[in-house]
Amino acid sequence: MLTASRCLLGKELRESVPGKLCELFGELDNGLHLISGLLPYLPIPAHRHRDRARQRLGEIITEVIRLRRNSSRGAAGTDENNDDMLQCLINSRYKDGCAMTDAEIAGLVVALMFAGKHTSSGVSIWTGVHLLSNPNHLAAVVAEQDRLMASCPGRTDDYHRLDYDTVQEMRSLHCCVKEALRLHSPVAAVRQAYKHFTVQTKEGKAYTIPGGHMVVSTILVNHYLPHIYKDPHVFDPQRFAPGREEDKVAGRFSFLSFSAGRHACAGESFSYTQIKVLWSYLLSNFEIKMVSPFPETEWSTVIPEPKGKVMVSYRRPLLLTTVVIWTALQKRKRGEACPAAVAPPPIVQGTALVRLLRAMARDGPLEVIREQLAKLGSVFMASAPLGLFKWTGNKHGSCNK
Ligand code: HEM
Known about the structure:
Helix content: 40-55%
Largest sheet: 2 strands, antiparallel
Cofactor: heme
Keywords: Heme, Iron, Metal-binding, Monooxygenase, Oxidoreductase
Bound molecules: protoporphyrin IX containing FE
Distance between the termini: 48 Å
Number of domains: 3
Oligomer: single chain
GO molecular function: heme binding; iron ion binding; monooxygenase activity; oxidoreductase activity, acting on paired donors, with incorporation or reduction of molecular oxygen
CATH architecture of the largest domain: Orthogonal Bundle
Number of helices: 16
Shape: globular
């Protein structure tokens, strides 16, 4: 919700009313029952709450649109400071040169937020569940994170800043998200046939779809066809890697999670980026283990999410390391005795120094940390086999082990 609201609705709403937005979108969710598909305005409490929330959302968003339109640059429709979807829609023009009304814009951004909410969160959870249950794939993704973070262009100023290009390079993580999508596609594609047409099965049997009929593409069934996907029930992200590319085996309709054709999902690229940013952040900062059993699928909801709670345990070794060493640095600065040895947990190994600086950079400007290190004149030594991380030898001579 937070990343989507920043990208789609803009920084005003992301920063000023994030809790309120979550609550209002939650009310929209609660108004989505199976009966809503048949009788969307049935006067039941869930629908009343939904409609009230929609109205409130409309008011909040149109207020932002009004402020932007009235601001000097917003009035010209070219406010480059607002790099979000809301501003794109404000700036857009119909073919006859007319701008969209505030109500149209508000309706579109609410629809976009809603289209991506459960789909992306469901796939994020499935991606995590599969990754945490497959140590080999998890190790490959973590190694990819380490490699890409080490060469991320933003690292000197703010080591942890992810940029768009780096996210696009996360091939292993991308394949894992795609494989989670294949196994747990959240949406079915529904189309109306305008004129009759014939389809043929691979055995050569022909079926005619009469014009006017609704056609539901059972994406999940397609994704488990063994002549397209080898061992279709197995989580195997490598099936999308060069050389195998099973998502192309049956032509351009082999992989259908985002549907296809003119009305394919408009948010495909955004979803991948969002889910990858989320897992990149979690995997770079936490050691996570799944402690609940592999979840079953909840088929009774509109979007099949994991049934029940998925429980994980997590710890933040970098933070611990940072706190221990940062505290010692501060003591040193004040001229107090510092510990003879600092021994963070065994997780601190080969890339410890890089990771340490990265973690420290989050607590304060890197310049300050560099200054601290220079003042101290310390040498950090990573002792990988023992998992110890010590500092030694400084010009004051009091701390040499
Ligand atoms: C993992 C996440 C997502 C999945 C699996 C997904 C899947 C789909 C599918 C299958 C359709 C086509 C439905 C049909 O053919 O009847 C669709 C349509 C659409 N999606 Fe998504 N979606 C996701 C995320 C998003 C996001 C984040 C956005 C917006 C930011 C979005 C915006 C849309 C829109 C606007 C359409 C309608 C396109 C049209 O009718 O022309 N989706 N999505």
